[in-house]
From TrEMBL:
The keyword NADP does not apply. It comes from Zhongshania arctica. Keywords: DNA-binding, Transcription, Transcription regulation. This is AraC family transcriptional regulator. It comes from the Bacteria. Residues 234-334 form the HTH araC/xylS-type domain.
């Protein structure tokens, strides 16, 4: 119940490579517990567990960690090889430079470069040619993987001064705010780039080959739910989910701040720094729990409504329709 949910446009884009290669994507979706009909609903979302299962299934079937979305396959085991090579790095900056070097050896999709510009370090991805990258899902996935790996290695939420993306903002552009932890995201840029402050490049690598084994076993879950997410919005979400699971209702901002040993006003400022607020985090948590519970037939609509703190079932139905564009019962049937 603690996992996030994934917007269906990302799901649809992640399958484009397999569909183009002739695989029966509807059958694969059903095997992973996902209704193919959901792909037509831009507003709909699916549970992360199902999405991760789908990613893993497509990678195995195609023997391609790139999901068929690059101009050539990225054979299974490629990321494992690169990750092991980076375990001997002593700092985050060293990891970025070695990551750049090894990614270029495979000559897939992007040309990777690292550039120092004053007080900033820029990790840049430039498309090798117009057909090198099939869609923007895989481009986003690559930069997420790079950033999440740094966060895991340093056991720190490594700040991003800015994220540049070389494609126009999609209809679901608001999702990118959460993908990159509230750090600034700019679309329609010349290159895909991650901007870091040089000061953070000295952060030590606190991981080793032993801990890497656990990290790789979780992949690609680490991209969406890091093992240690130190953002304040994530901590608040955790407190809300614990209250829901313990049938304690939805906690207030003040109650959550007390649990985190912070003054409410300080917590509000921290959330503003992450480009969000308490209401948004609470709404997302309720939405994701509702999606999870609707996938379990033992929960009645009335039970879900009560557990999520709605005064009556009709209020829950209205809220869910606003989140997903359909009623809870329609979603459950799909």
């Amino acid at each position: 119940m603690t996992d996030i949910t994934i917007a269906t446009p990302f799901l649809r884009q992640s399958l484009e490579g397999a569909a183009a290669a002739g695989y029966d994507t509807k059958r694969i979706l059903k095997e992973c517990g996902i209704s193919p009909a959901l792909l037509e609903q831009n507003q709909a979302r699916i549970a992360l567990d199902n999405f991760i299962l789908l990613q893993q299934r497509v990678m195995r079937v195609m023997n391609d960690e790139g999901l068929g979305l690059f101009d050539r396959p990225v054979r299974l085991g490629t990321f494992d090889l690169i990750a092991h090579a980076m375990m001997h790095c002593t700092t985050v900056g060293d990891i970025l430079r070695r990551m750049c070097h090894y990614n270029n050896l495979f000559e897939v999709g992007f040309i990777h470069t690292v550039e120092e510009s004053g007080s900033q370090l820029i990790y840049r991805l430039q498309r090798r040619h117009p057909g090198a990258v099939k869609n923007n899902y895989i481009a986003t996935s690559i930069v997420m993987t790079i950033h999440r790996f740094l966060c895991w290695a340093s056991v720190t939420r490594v700040p991003l001064a800015s994220v540049h993306l070389d494609f126009p903002p999609p209809e679901w552009a608001s999702e990118y705010r959460y993908i990159f932890y509230g750090f600034p995201v700019k679309f329609n840029q010349k290159y895909i780039e991650l901007y870091f402050d040089q000061d953070h490049m000295a952060l030590p690598n606190r991981q080793d080959v032993g801990s890497l084994k656990s990290y790789l076993a979780r992949a690609p879950r680490n991209i969406f739910v890091p093992e240690k997410n130190l953002s304040y919005s994530s901590q608040i979400r955790g407190e809300i989910l614990r209250s829901i699971q313990n049938n304690e209702g939805i906690p207030s901002m003040e109650e959550v701040a007390e649990k985190l040993a912070m003054h409410p006003q300080t917590l509000r400022r921290r959330l503003r720094d992450e480009s969000t607020d308490f209401t948004v985090v609470r709404t997302q948590a309720r939405r994701d729990v509702a999606i999870y519970m609707l996938s379990k037939p033992q929960y009645r609509i009335e039970d879900i409504s009560t557990q999520l703190g709605f005064s009556e079932s009709s209020a829950f139905v209205r809220a869910f329709k606003g989140w997903m564009g359909m009623t809870p019962m329609a979603y459950r049937k799909m």
